[in-house]
Amino acid sequence: MRTFSDVKGLPIYEQTTGKAVGAIADIWFTSHGTVKGLVAERSGLFGRRRYLPLSAVQSLQHDRIIIRDADSFQPFPSPESGHSLYGERGIAGSMVVAADGTTIGLLDDVYFDGQLGKIDGYEISEGFFSDLTEGKKRMEAAPFTAKEGVVTVETMW
C-alpha cells in the first residue's frame, strides 16, 4: 500500500509504443473511497490535464505507470462524481473532523491500493512540530463529506 504522494509525478507510458505520454498529477476518488482514476499532466507543447480512468491502467509500478495507449485519456467526469487531492475539488489541507465534532487534524495524503481501486486510509497531520516529533497519523478510510474546507468523516476518532 502506498500514499498518493508516492505516485504523484510518475511518468505514464503507452504499452503499445513505449512512448512517455504524461505524468501523474492527482487522484480522483469518491467520498466512499473508490478510486475512479488519475489526473495526468499531458506531455507536449499544449500539455494539459486529462482524466485517466483506473480501468485504463495496465500496470502501476514503483517508477512508472503503463496504460494501453494515449486514447485512454478522457474528459473529466462531472465535479459531483468525486474529489481530488489537489485540483478543483481538492481536499488536501482540509480540516478533518469526526462525526461527533472532534477535530482530528489536517488531511495530508491518502493511502490507496491502485490494483483494487480503493482508498485504504488517510494520512493526517497535526501540525509541523507534531509531525516532526510524533510523525503523521494514519486513519482508516471512512465515508466522508467535504464542504468549505472541512472533511467530516463518518467515524468516531
UniProtKB/TrEMBL annotation:
Name the domain of life: Bacteria
Q: Which InterPro entries match?
A: PRC-brl_dom, PRC_barrel-like_sf
Domain named PRC-barrel is located at: 3-69, 92-137
A Pfam entry, by short name:
PRC
What name does the UniProt record give this protein?
Photosystem reaction center subunit H
Q: Which organism is it from?
A: Geobacillus genomosp. 3
